[in-house]
Give the backbone structure.
Amino acid sequence: MSNNSPTLEFAKQLISRASVTPEDAGCQQLMADRLAAIGFEIKHLRFDDVDNFWAIRGDSGPILCFAGHTDVVPSGPESSWNTPPFEPTIQDGMLYGRGAADMKGSLAAMVVAVENFIVEHAEHNGRIAFLITSDEEGIAANGTVKVVEWLSQQQCIPDYCLVGEPSSSHQCGDTIKNGRRGSLGCNMRIIGQQGHVAYPQLASNPIHNAAPALAELAAHEWDCGNDFFPATSFQISNINGGTGATNVIPGELNIVFNFRFSTELTDQQLRQRTEEILDKHQLNYELNWHLSGQPFLTAEGELVDAAVKAVKEETGLDTVLSTAGGTSDGRFIAPMGTQVVELGPVNATIHQIDECASVADLNKLTGIYQSVLKHLFI
């Protein structure tokens, strides 16, 4: 495939639209128009200020759903980019622009792969679907999670889901994400007694009080992981205390921390063990927990097999299955009982200045997606 491939041209059209979360900027309509032209039924689903759509082709059989997002993170200072972030540019075989890797390149590859597949196999087995949101890079409150609720009400549950997140590390297809760790965050307030630093006996320093407990939380072994997940990690991301004055013991300390956890523990167990440590140190505290997603795993099955074979056929690589990295919208889809994998381009420049994706890789990705369809439905 050349630099004038359908995948590249469609990716450029999508990148040209400044669809910063939660704006879609017309990207979904571009996709929906092309899918409708090849026999997909389109259902636009707007929740609050977020555009989503569900598209499906076929009347019976298992459903393979391509899932992704049209929204992108802000570009940052445009003056720092070598080329304008929303003017797709080709240089040295790379496509530059916000969303090239995360994940408008994948969306283009999905659409073109399905177009090609239907030309060759118009009477294929099974059903093909798309679940597309513009709320993945934000708080993810009115995107995929709401579409999944709608699908459950319609009793239309995908059997397989291929998420186009940039999963590859060095070469397109070298890594497939077949699961993700759970994410449990917390805003913690340690309550003390404000006072003068010269009279500590008349105050209670929440920073001093919390320090031993924080050290224990950081050193605690929550689990040892398993064959698919690394050990659960605890990380403090923010600490804020003090009045700004040098002679005042603060009255409270605010701490933000996060667990990335494996399937060895539940979020309830993490909450309970955290509180046990805090109580052990006799702290006066308040906790505001936020569960971003449960861990999920597709250890084996038809979708993993098809994806591994497709990568080998199109790239020659023996792909690696991984659960590393952050969360994705797969966390909302997997609880339906759906087999979920993430497979997309190299992730080295995502969210960065001068985000880019290899043109050759986007064309390979189109072939991989088309091959997955063949393994599942031919």
About this structure: The two ends are 24 Å apart (CA to CA).
